[in-house]
Design goal:
399 residues; alpha+beta; two-stranded antiparallel sheet; 14 helices; globular
Length: 399
Amino acid sequence: MGTIRSYTRFGGAYAETAALTNVLAAAGVRAPHTGQPFSEAMIFGIGGGPGAGYILWEFQGNNHSTKVLVLAFQHLWQYPMRFYQGLCDRIGVTISMPETGSRKAAGEMLQAALAQGKGAAAWVDRAHMPYLHLPEMLKGHIGHIVAVCGRDGGYMLIDDRAAAPFRMGEGELADARGRITSYKNRLLLVEGISNCDLPGAIQGGLRACVEHLSSPSDSFSLPAIRKWGKMMTDTKNSKGWPRLFGDGRGLFSMLRSAFEGTALNVGEGGLRGLYARFLEEAAGVAGNAGLRSAADQYRGLAQRWEAFAEAVLPDEVEPFAEAKGLLRRRHAAILMGGEAWRGSQAENEALEAVHARVKQEFPLDEAGVKRLFEGMQGHLMGLYAAETAALEGLREAVG
């Protein structure tokens, strides 16, 4: 079978929007202003654009705890089905999101879609995707969305932000789809296409963004950035970083997660650069020069998020700089797609060696850890102020 014939676009900046953008293109959905498939930037913006989220989970099991840092940069990141439904309603695309608790029925549902020439967005467990190199202990804890775009013998073809599809065994993919039981083996399928009122869709996405980012939630909107900043130096709160990681134990894993979650798992400076590209494209369609000014602010935010990612693993700390370089090289191999990720075994082994070295002797003393936390706090508080200012600029442009 190979890749579905109509599925010709691969990759993107962010898993959720890249998967949908490419599935829509394969289904024949076209942007009215270009006659071509929608750009990922336009899909992202019409969907509601940027969001914010910070949660530090702690899971107990097997006589030890696992801490998982959740960072988010997308509108309605905690409700992807609502994000997808609102976006597709705005652009005139009818979708279905079928679910089943049966592994067999889930496989049949996916195979039926592929047989009809449909690509499908699929909910999976991130740690079950072998090319992402996540540790066993994270299985069942982090959700992810990919596009399934074909089959090659006993292998399924997976479009996941890379230039070419990955190959996963049919059973491997079934395991990934079924691991997080609340996902119920969910798929997203395109069922119909109608006319798109693009200016109206853009306005709807802009208003959704402004409304959501104005929320007072300190877990799911802009105040989450301020909360994270406060946690960096809070010695009383049980989730304060000085209480959890002040002695260095477990800190390297959190810093690495913060770097990957900000610089690698999402593209273009916490997706703010992607939103700036949407605002530029939307300004032309809507004839709204104010959106171009807002785009400048979001480009500045992208640079600030990139600077924060650098500060999380500062270059002056040798093992941190080494880890950062290894993570970037491994990520570059992943983004090539296909089997290229298998060539990053040397980086994986080197990362494990760095982790073991840091675990044995953390490279910062107590004062150094305190300075690191204070530096991260400074970045985060500056980001919160800049994000708030950009939101006000966007609000004025939207009217």
